[in-house]
Amino acid sequence: MATDDPRVKAAISHWGARFVANGVALADFEDVTRSLNNYDDWCRAWSERAALHERIGNEALAKKKYLTAGECLQRAGVYYHFASFLFVNDVPQMKVAHMKGVACRQAALPHLDPPGERVEIPYMGKKLYGILRKPKGVAKPPIVVMACGLDSTKEEGDAYEVSFLNRGMATLMFDGPGQGEGQYDWPIRGDYEVPVKAVIDYVVTRSDLDTARLAMWGVSLGGYYAPRAAAHDKRIKACIALGGPFDWGAAWDGLPELTREAFRVRSHAKTEAEAKKNAQTLSLVGIAQNITCPIFIVNGRHDRVVPASDAERLAREVKGPAELVMVEDGNHIANNRAYRWRSQSPDWLKDQLK
User: Quick one: which of 255, 283, 224 has its CA closest to 86?
Assistant: First the structure.
């Protein structure tokens, strides 16, 4: 079904490569997006396809086929995530799909290879939630703290986590303020070093992790959050920044409509003008020079969300060693050329944490 809805067209053109790279079957992506005539049907259509994978997973679970159950429930969680990821035009419907995604990944965690555990992190009188996974055969692994973006959550994390786990590093992906489970209690905040401090304070209580070898990773808006935290918390020994803005307020007017609206809702702003004011608090101006740990920076030259020049500016302004991977034919985070950085970034990090 062809659609004239610009929101559907934008979602397909901006995010197709990411969906497939992060666990959506190409045939499912094509089936679901072709079925849409209006963006208002987005969450329903993706939730219906997610329910199919959830059912297959539960059938495997009932038969005690645990590896299959984990794979299918993990996939269902990703589909429910993408049902909700930018669907802020109907928050109640979005929240139903989002929490289904949380439940599916939680059900998958014991059966993944390696398995994961849901962790609760004290923060501002409540809790942030994360997923901790540890590599097999490593008694006390280094730890990579992973920050999501504007529209990503820990339920999308498996595709990112696996390359670190395969190289002997533990991962802790968490939902911060304005993200995933944290979006309901707290708005997005520019001083993201505050929630990261709470996460690292939790991590250092774990005797099963080598917290002297701790790194920070962030994707998309998390590619701002991670270097921001590294500028303030010297417990972070290395940093990976994927597709992050240098100055979100400066990029505001060029952002896609769906992205601006998601930021408005998740920064708890009533108007776009208020959202733009909030966006101006997300900046590395005067901050980047405080980053002294090694940093690995990635983006695509054809990014339609974050100017590629932001990655180049970050590489210039940090005071520590910087490695910049600019994928000349890449889109946002170069998801269409993920083979250029998904293996190379954990290789780089493993060397830094020796």
Answer: 255
